[in-house]
Design brief:
alpha/beta; Rossmann fold; nine-stranded mixed β-sheet; 14 helices; 16 strands; 28% helix; disordered N terminus
Length: 476
């Protein structure tokens, strides 16, 4: 956590509900910025999908293409603007591949340019398994771990199959939260930036319906958490499908299906699937290709500990963790919006800067917090389970469950915010007497071990700089 202290932390913005409680903090990754600086996430500069520019009410604009005309025989790879090579160690969650290359899938050259400029060097296991099948037009039901490349697994074939000659919406990505909709739309914009003519629109609740309809007329792809009237020629894809097909969403999903063409492709991706997904699959998918890369549920690069405390000791324990851990960026989970705000205020009173985010905040404040945290403007984020699904912030190397969850599914998604794409991460759980049975139950359900926290945590377990920059696989 940030060790930069101030006697009177101030709240920035027009109200105290904007989610940004700051001390005199340096950006994540800066020397002396707190918690030892420059930790396991490798700094925000290594984020593959950084948000570009300000986000305004969920609207995302196409990034203008800057590539020069490529003539036959040119070495097009020489003109790519590649990000710095990520030399951090990775686990077999993403390295246990068949050795395929993105070029093996006969993708458009312009799409390949966007893929490589995102820093995606080779397909991950879930991408190897699903991209060829998705390109064939077949429905897919896929399970893969958090942070192993599911977004790329469906966005790459989606963009390859877009016909720029057709003036209509051709693809729809449905996700359960507004933040994830913004993230997916930004990834799609960046990957397609050399394709010329692909338009991406993110529409979420809380935005002006008339503006959305006007933007819809000029859009090729839409990432959304809600439903709307659509044209006939549509491919539909879901991320975090288990949540979307839960009792809260399934009625809406059934209504959306009524607007889709009969000849459609449905791709369902998630780390967890309840029984409701099987019912939906039997009703709406046509002989889906099933992929399951979840022989073990938790990420190999995430080390899990628990600290046994009373409720009154939690803040003191958190303060101790701040001073002892080498944190690049951290996410701290609470079980309610009220506890998120109370904890964020308590952290600021201790002299640490933090952001907070929950579903009851105004949308513009949620957007700002999400954007600024992704860009490394604060080291610590306190949140509810709003932030468990799909959010990919490469610089996060520590997750703390200030309140322990009741469900194994929730726990799995929470700790999956660290250790992204096979990298190192640390998950620490503050356990009270009332949590003891949940702790045992989640260990058994997930087939994992959550160990008692040691007096000194080995930095090599979660800090990238304590490993040689060889890029070798981290052994489990």
């Amino acid at each position: 956590m940030s060790t930069a202290r101030t006697e009177n932390p101030v709240i920035l913005g027009l109200s105290n509900q904007n989610g940004q409680l700051r001390g005199s903090v340096k950006p994540a990754g800066a020397p002396g910025g707190g918690g030892g600086g420059g930790g396991g996430g490798g700094g925000p500069q290594l984020q593959l999908n950084q948000m570009k520019g300000a986000i305004n009410n969920g609207n995302s604009q196409p990034v203008p293409t800057t590539n020069a005309v490529i003539k036959p025989g040119d070495d097009w790879k020489k003109n790519l603007k590649l990000p710095p090579k990520d030399m951090r160690m990775r686990t077999s969650d993403v390295t246990a591949t068949k050795g395929n290359e993105f070029e093996d899938y006969c993708l458009k050259r312009e799409l390949l340019m966007g893929i490589f400029e995102m820093g995606w060097e080779k397909p991950s296991p879930i991408q190897e398994e699903s991209i060829p099948i998705a390109l064939s037009g077949r429905d897919i039901l896929a399970r893969a771990k958090n942070g192993t490349g599911k977004s790329g697994a469906y966005l790459i074939p989606l963009l390859e199959r877009i016909d720029l000659k057709k003036d209509c919406i051709q693809a729809m990505v449905i996700v359960p939260t507004r933040e994830l909709a913004l993230q997916v739309s930004q990834i799609c914009i960046q990957v397609s930036k050399h394709m010329g003519g692909v338009k991406v629109m993110a529409t979420t609740g809380g935005t002006n319906l008339r503006d959305d309809i006007m933007r819809l007329d000029e859009t090729g792809i839409m990432a959304t958490t809600g439903g709307t009237n659509l044209r006939d020629d549509i491919m539909r894809l879901d991320e975090q499908a288990d949540k979307l097909l839960s009792q809260d969403f399934v009625v809406m999903m059934e209504e959306i299906l009524g607007f889709l063409a009969k000849q459609r492709q449905i791709l369902l991706y998630s780390a967890t699937f309840p029984l409701s997904v099987q019912k939906f699959m039997n009703s709406h998918l046509q002989k889906p290709y099933e992929i399951n890369l979840m022989e073990e549920l938790t990420l190999k690069g995430v080390t899990q500990y628990y600290a046994y405390v009373t409720e009154r000791q939690k803040v003191h324990c958190l303060n101790t963790l701040f001073s002892r851990l080498q944190i690049n960026q951290s996410i701290i989970f609470c079980n309610s919006s009220q506890r998120v705000e109370l904890l964020a205020k308590k952290i600021s009173q201790l002299g640490y800067s933090c952001f907070y985010i929950h579903a009851k905040m105004r949308q513009e404040h949620r957007n700002r917090v999400f954007h600024d945290f992704r860009n490394g403007l604060c080291r610590n984020l306190v949140c509810t389970d709003l932030f468990t699904r799909g959010i990919d912030i490469q610089a996060v190397n520590v997750v703390i469950n200030f309140d322990f969850p009741k469900l194994g599914e929730t726990y799995l998604h929470r700790i999956g915010r660290s250790g992204r794409f096979g990298h190192l991460g640390l998950a620490i759980n503050l356990i009270t007497y009332d949590d003891r049975f949940n702790l045992k139950g989640i260990e058994e359900q997930l087939g994992t071990e959550i160990k008692p926290i040691p007096g000194i945590i080995d930095k090599s377990l979660y800090v990238a700089e304590y490993h040689s920059e060889s890029g070798e696989e981290l052994k489990p």
